[in-house]
Amino acid sequence: MRELRPTDLPELTDVLRQCGAFTETEVICALELLDIVLKDPAQSDYRVAVAEENQDVQGYVLFGPVPLTEGNYMIYWIAVAPQGQGRGIGRRLLAHVEAEATADRARLICLETSSQGSYERTRNFYMQAGYHLESRIADFYRAGDDRLTYVKRFTCREEV
Ligand SMILES: CC(C)(COP(=O)(O)OP(=O)(O)OC[C@H]1O[C@@H](n2cnc3c(N)ncnc32)[C@H](O)[C@@H]1OP(=O)(O)O)[C@@H](O)C(=O)NCCC(=O)NCCS
Asked: Mean of the pLDDT values across residues 54-62?
């Protein structure tokens, strides 16, 4: 797990296009967020961890503290290359986010995903990792495609 470098962009573009989940518009949006992280070192809304194996980029996660909240983190994007999927890389990316967020006294981590059948494996992945479905907005993305919000809650040190 390491920080994002400008030279990662071609490989991350391939990961996003090939991972089987995103439309071209979504890929462009994901790349815009990576661009913000690379070009604006002063921003603190987004952080990226890149998973690398044998000098090959296998995936990444983009996350950060939710503006105007206390102790609330959001995972905005996660993707693993198709040849890397099912080998624990996604789980390690989530563990990295959780370690960073809880070190910053996060109370909860949220993420949003789609209700479409093609996201069933992704939903299982989140549930296996301890994220619970807490809200659903019907027809959010398009008719018949709901927005699901999954949440994992942590106990703050002073509440123990
Ligand atoms: C979702 C994603 C990030 C998961 O990463 P991954 O590296 O494949 O996941 P892992 O190998 O760490 O798997 C962790 C758990 O996910 C689940 N999982 C993994 N592969 C699975 C499969 N083929 N079928 C069902 N569940 C699976 C299992 O619960 C697994 O736990 P296990 O290892 O005990 O079986 C990855 O599959 C991906 O990039 N998908 C496309 C992009 C995407 O959907 N992003 C999220 C948009 S909201």
From this structure: 96
